[in-house]
């Protein structure tokens, strides 16, 4: 009797373990940008519950918010974190203290796998800032190395798609001439450290600027005639893949075929100013849900069919404090109260409100 109940307990535990594995492998392999330029976002522990309910296993932050990193301790979620202070990261001792303060205390419990140094740095046309980018990335990389973390954490930066001067046809992709002096050595760094080249790509911007010339179905991954690159004969049925391949071509033009391109941001706003054509909840829903289907199918782009697209959707929440046109505050999959802005088949929900102050969040979640 005792033995058989022991046996059944064992079987039950085994079952739990196996179903756990199943749940993890079922997780959709896409990431979400968790931006926090808002004054009304839910508590960190509620966000952690939401992310778990979505089965999302990768998050990108624009900083290294210790509240978030703590709220996700012992979770299955991988993090890309960010640092913007290029001037300090150039300095080896400052870079080392930054890693000691922002990475080392968390990395044993929270999977930090990548650090982005700067976001869209080249778009400012600030020669000092642009010149600091690679030395700052090297500073962070060397600091990780001296702390024994270089194998676990890669170092990169996220670029705007505007660093390309030419993007169509995709095989003609080329970087802006004035940026090549910075990008060429950056590519050597990526190849040497095996880190990905990240690009923020928004077919929405192209559509909004040329709604009469660009087909909405082409940018929304809907059935459409597509376009064929006359130099490669590769056929494109959506703009995002054409943009990714244009980046591959621009990198190749500088002599590299050894660097992977990933999408650090893409998305579609559910609302915009009157002149922001196409910013509607319907289009946002179609863009994001069709994108998720492509990710589920592990599709590669026409030029890299065997490399599944690697995507971070922008963004988790609408962020009410972002400057700029109305669209900037309306990229979220969720309103800050946890209601989905539209239904993309992710049955996310926010759990019951737990009354807690932000300063108590990390303790609360670490114990739970
Ligand atoms: C930076 O320079 C590029 C190319 O000359 C230009 O298209 C872009 O508008 C400039 N950006 C800013 C913020 O001045
Ligand atoms: C997450 O995975 C679980 C277990 O496989 C599944 O029941 C649930 O529907 C998934 N949730 C979403 C939002 O896909
Ligand atoms: C934080 O938690 C502690 C212990 O649970 C509690 O005594 C304290 O009042 C809380 N602080 C705030 C600001 O809620």
Characterization of the model:
The chain is of the alpha/beta class and 368 residues long. The protein has a single domain (27-367), classed as Alpha-Beta Barrel (TIM Barrel), CATH 3.20.20. Helices cover 39% and strands 14% of the residues. It has an eight-stranded parallel barrel with strand order 1-2-3-4-5-8-11-12. Strands 6-7 form a two-stranded antiparallel ribbon. Strand 1 (31-33), helix 2 (44-53) and strand 2 (58-60) form a beta-alpha-beta unit. It starts with a helix and ends with a helix. The structure holds 2-acetamido-2-deoxy-beta-D-glucopyranose (3 copies).
Q: What's the SSE blueprint?
A:
Layout: H1 2-26, E1 31-33, H2 44-53, E2 58-60, H3 66-71, E3 78-83, H4 86-89, H5 92-102, E4 111-119, H6 127-146, E5 154-160, E6 164-166, E7 174-175, H7 180-193, E8 197-200, H8 203-209, H9 216-219, E9 227-228, E10 235-236, H10 239-253, E11 261-266, H11 281-296, E12 311-313, H12 358-367
Helix pairs in contact: 5-6, 6-7
Bound molecules: 2-acetamido-2-deoxy-beta-D-glucopyranose (3 copies).
One 2-acetamido-2-deoxy-beta-D-glucopyranose binds at residues 123, 125, 176.
GO molecular function: glucan endo-1,3-beta-D-glucosidase activity
Family: Belongs to the glycosyl hydrolase 17 family.
Protein name: glucan endo-1,3-beta-D-glucosidase
């Amino acid at each position: 009797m005792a033995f058989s109940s022991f046996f059944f307990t064992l079987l039950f535990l085994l079952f739990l373990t196996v179903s756990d594995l199943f749940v993890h492998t079922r997780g959709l392999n896409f990431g979400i940008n968790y931006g926090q330029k808002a004054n009304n976002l839910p508590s960190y522990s509620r966000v952690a519950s939401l992310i778990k309910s979505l089965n999302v296993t990768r998050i990108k932050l624009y900083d290294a918010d210790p509240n978030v990193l703590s709220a996700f301790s012992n979770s299955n979620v991988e993090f890309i974190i960010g640092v913007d202070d290029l001037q300090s990261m150039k300095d080896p001792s400052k870079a080392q203290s930054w890693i000691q303060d922002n990475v080392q205390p968390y990395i044993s419990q929270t999977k930090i796998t990548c650090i982005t140094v700067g976001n869209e740095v080249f778009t400012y046309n600030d020669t000092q800032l642009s010149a600091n980018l690679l030395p700052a990335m090297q500073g962070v990389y060397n600091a990780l190395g001296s702390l024994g973390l270089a194998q676990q954490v890669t170092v990169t930066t996220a670029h705007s798609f505007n660093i390309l001067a030419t993007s169509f046809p995709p095989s003609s992709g080329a970087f802006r001439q004035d940026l090549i002096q910075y990008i060429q050595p950056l590519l050597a760094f990526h190849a040497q450290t095996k880190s990905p080249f990240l690009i923020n790509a928004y077919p929405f911007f192209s559509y909004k600027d040329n709604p009469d010339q660009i087909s909405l179905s082409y940018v929304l991954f809907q059935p459409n005639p597509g376009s064929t690159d006359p130099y490669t004969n590769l056929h494109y049925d959506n703009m995002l893949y054409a943009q990714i391949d244009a980046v591959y071509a621009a990198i190749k033009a500088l002599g590299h075929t050894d660097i992977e391109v990933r999408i650090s941001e893409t998305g579609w706003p559910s609302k915009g100013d009157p002149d922001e054509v196409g910013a509607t909840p319907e289009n946002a829903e179609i863009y994001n849900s069709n994108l998720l289907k492509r990710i589920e199918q592990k599709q590669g782009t026409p030029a890299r069919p065997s490399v599944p697209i690697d995507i971070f959707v922008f963004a988790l929440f609408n962020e009410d404090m972002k400057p700029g046109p109305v669209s900037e505050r309306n990229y979220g999959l969720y309103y800050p109260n946890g209601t989905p802005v539209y239904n993309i088949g992710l049955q996310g929900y926010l759990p019951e409100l737990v009354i807690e102050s932000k300063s108590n969040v990390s303790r609360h979640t670490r114990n739970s």
